[in-house]
Each structure stands twice: as structure tokens, then as C-alpha cells.
Amino acid sequence: MTSEAEQAFEEGRAALLAADRKRAMAGFLMALALKPEEHRYQVAALDSLATATGYTSLPPAVLEALKVCAENPKLDLQPLAMVVRTLLAHHPKRAAWLALTHETDSEELETALPSGLLDDVFTDPLVRAVLEHAVNISFDLEDILTRLRRHALTRHTQGLPSHLLDAHGAFFEAMVAQASRCDYAWAETDEERALLDGLSRSDEDQRMARVYRRDQTDITDFETLTHLGDATSRAVQEQYTAYPYPRWERVPPAERYSLGTFLAAKFPQETFPERFNGPVTGLSAGCGTGRGPAILLSTLKDLALTAMDLSPSSLSYAKRKLAELDLPVARIGLGDILNVDALDQSFDLIETSGVLHHMADPQAGLNALCRVLKPDGVIRIALYSEQARKAVVAARQWILDEGISDTPDGVRQARQLLRQLPDAHPAKPVMDTSEYFVLSGLHDLIFNVQEHRFTPRQLARLIDNAGLRLIGFDIEDRAIKNMYADTYPADGPQINLDNWQAFEEKHPDTFAEMYQFWCRPVGDGTTN
Fold it and tell me: What is the pLDDT of residues 240-257, one digit of tens each?
């Protein structure tokens, strides 16, 4: 007999297939509340909450179940950041908290803290989980943390007691973790910087310094797989060495399949080589900090993966995280896509996510990758959308107009000035992105040294000129797939780029997370 929890879960899955997000979330949360230890329910519930808005509270049973999720080291806890953002925005003490953040008198604030006003923040396990294992996206929580940090630094340097440090040391350490996770994006005053400069190397002083700056991270020496190709490659290398991004922690749990099984389920209209059901070779071209390789290695079995990137900082992060997750790569090193032939190897699978659009000539980059793709191989590409990046383009121009410097302090200044822009300003929507809350993320978003954007018809030319054909998009939002199917029922595989051009013009946020698509060389792989 199907349990009540399983029935609720299946109702949630059915609703998700029907693109009814509200009913899907209700089913998944009910299943989680009834059986909070069940991993499938945890993953589904968190996924449904990742972008959900419109609620002001959650039932006690759901909150208790989410606390169980917060203790699971295998889960990606970033969706809890949206939960915390929503719940804090409707907390009955919110107005008093925000008033406290504007308190400038050190003694007044120190007197207010022992009253318990902030205890709901200090002791909330969901807040703690977000601080330690996710990126906070709550403006309210950031304002609270920024004010507490400044207050603690002031009290410490004056040799005065600090209730935060004395009574809530664990919360302070969670603040340290979050400050590092967001790359120290929070606003700093000139006074704070002066106080930081005066700190010594003592343990007490360095404890305080860690909530403002991370210790210098050692950069690992890597094998040079290829040499740099051009001046743009050198500029991009310099940028991502200074601002490695993203600093991720976990990847979604997944069942591992052979490449053949994985692709057959995703693209049933295609026929793939039999050898894809055994050991295969892969290349992550521009692997960055390693999240792409981690997803591939946790999804595909028998994959011998080569990972290369321009940035030694990014590679150092990637190597550490992949080792933590026990996801070994066959080879990892410094390399430029333009010179990928120097690898002297061809690959069954190539993944290049968010990379080609940072090259001087994306076509030259894609052509180079196709030279090392096996004639019957597959390549997954992710590129920026012209339609979806309008706010980013406006923000890039706004930075130039304002004369904001391309420095960490300049990025922090941009964050604060963006908050002050009128809602109608075309750059304002960049505040709705997760990148806004991370210093390296915002730098990547609006300070990037090189950026190209595409329309579906431009994608068609790029793909065709490389001798490729499109076999499908990765689109997680079932509502988008359903809308497209209703509009263009004759295009079952949903690969007509003229159709997508018209569809995206009507729905400009369709590819807000980039075009993410799969291709194969022309002339190989018959369709069923």
C-alpha cells in the first residue's frame, strides 16, 4: 500500500510534469513533513523551494523537516537561502532588526544585543545552515551581518566587551564562513579599513580579520597542457586568477549512468555509438572552479575526464573540491581552448560552459574544440543570451558612465550604488541575480573583460560554421518546454532555432541561465 508521504510525493511529481509549481511544491513539502529523512523528498522539496515566492510562513512540520535537511552533508543547501530570505522578510521583528542596523552608537547597540532582539537570527538553524553552506541572498540578513561585523570590529579594537563575540561565538564563526563564501562583498567603511590595517598577527586580531579577508590561498602548480593563445586569453586569465568564480560547495546528488544511457534518455530521437555504454573520454574546456567537471563525474560512470582552464586559482579550487568529493579527473592543468590540439587527444564528450563567449572569437574557439571532438562525439555548450542579458549590458554601461573602478572596492561600491538606483533603471535587475551577492560573481557579471552574447539565429550560424548540428537544449523549467510545445507542436525535439528566436522575443527570460545545448558533428548519428 502506498504511504501517505509517497502519495504526496507522486502528486508533486505529476504536478511538476504539468508545470504546476505551486501544487508540486505543496506535494513535495507534504511528503517531506511526513518523512523528513527520505532523501528523495529532501531533494524534491529543496528544488521546489529554490525559486518559490509568495508565501509568508511555512508550517511548523515543514520547518522541522527543513532543519533535518540542513544537517544532511550530501544536500545542496542553496535553496534554503530563498527560504531564509522569504521568512526574514515577513518576520514580526524585521522592522526592529533593520532599525538596529542603522544604530551608530556602539554602546547603544551593545546594550540592545543582550535583550534577545536578534536571538531569532542567532539561533535559527536554517540561518546557520545558509551562512555555513550556501550564499545568502537576503538583503535584510546582509544588512544585519554587515552591522554586526562593524560593531564587533569596533568593540574589539577598542578593547571593549562584545556580546556577539562573547555570547554568540558560533554565530560569529558562521559569519566568517559566509563572508568568505560571498568573497567579502559586504560594504566596508573607511573607518573599518583603517581599523583592519591596525590589527596585529595575534590570534585574537586574526580571528577578527577573518570576517573581512581570507588568508592568502596557496595556488597549486599545474601541468601546462597548452600555451595561451592571444591577448584576450591573457586578460581573461588575469581576471579569473584574481576573481575565481564560482566558489561552490556541493553538486546535486545524481544516479550515475553510462554516457550512452544518459544521452539516449535525453535525446531519444538520436542513435549513439555502442561504445558510449562503456568507458569514454571527456574534456571540460574552461573548467573554472570545477563545478562542471563535478556534475559530469557525479552523473556519468566510466568517464576519463581531462579538465583545463586558464586560471591557476580556479584550477586550485577545482582540484581541492573534486578531491573532497572523491571525483577524480584523469588529467587537470592549464590550457587555452585556442591551442587545444596540443593535448594530442580526441574526445567522446566535450563540455564548455560559459567559456566561448569570453573569447575574442567564439567561432575560432568552437572550431578548435571540434578538431578534438571525435566524429561521432557530443559537445555540450553554454552561452549568454542577448535577450536575457539586457540588464547586464545596461549595468556594464552604467559602470563606465559612473567611472567605477575595476577593483574589489569598486565592486563593493557598485553593489551599494545599485541598491540606490530607482527601480526603473535598466541596470537594477542585476540585483535579482545570485551573482549580485558574491563579489567575484558580480565582477564576472558586469566587470568581465570580454563578453559576447547571442540570439538563436546567431547560435545557428555558430553551430553550422563549426560543422555541428543541434540535438537539444537543457531546459529545466517544464513550463517553458510545455509552452514551446504548444506553440510549435511540429518540432518534437525542440531544436528549430528560428522558432526559438520568435519564442525568446516573446519570453525574454527564457534563457536567463544561458543557452545550454548539445550538438553532434554533421553527418554522424542518424535520427530514429
Answer: 999 999 988 888 777 899
pLDDT above 80: residue 219: no
* Conformation bin of residue 138: beta by default, left when phi > 0, alpha when psi is -120 to 50: beta
Q: Are 508 and 523 in contact (CB under 8 A)?
A: no
Rg (CA), the chain: 24
Q: How far apart are CA 22 and CA 16, in angstroms?
A: 9
Q: Please give the angle made by the CA atoms of 146, 187 and 104, to the nearest 5 degrees.
A: 55
User: What pLDDT does residue 359 have?
Assistant: 96
Alpha helices (H) along 267-311: 291-299
Task: Specify the DSSP element, H or E, that contains 398.
Answer: helix 390-402
Cα dist from 67 to 41, 60, 311, 343, 425, whole Å: 14, 11, 37, 47, 39
Q: What angle is formed at CA 217 by the lines to CA 224 and CA 286, rounded to 5 degrees? A: 40
Give the cell for residue 96.
Answer: 526592529
**DSSP E strands, 328-475:** 331-334, 347-353, 373-383, 468-473
Which DSSP helix (H) or strand (E) runs through 239? helix 231-242
Instruction: Tell me how far apart the alpha carbons of residues 286 and 291 are, in angstroms, rounded to a whole number.
Output: 11
Within 8 A by CB and 6+ apart from 438, the residues are: 135, 181, 182, 183, 185, 245, 246, 247
Q: Which amino acid is at 398?
A: W
- Answer whether 212's CB lies under 8 Å from 192's CB: yes
Cα–chain center distance at 298: 17
- Residue 522 near residue 468, CB atoms below 8 Å: yes
**Could you tell me the pLDDT band of residue 525, with boundaries at 50, 70 and 90?**
low
d(CA 504, CA 459): 13
For residue 259, what pLDDT is reported? Answer: 98
Res 172: pLDDT: 97
In contact, 524 and 375? CB cutoff 8 Å: yes
Which stretch of DSSP H or E encloses residue 303? strand 303-309
Asked if 96 contacts 149 with a C-beta cutoff of 8 angstroms, the reply is no
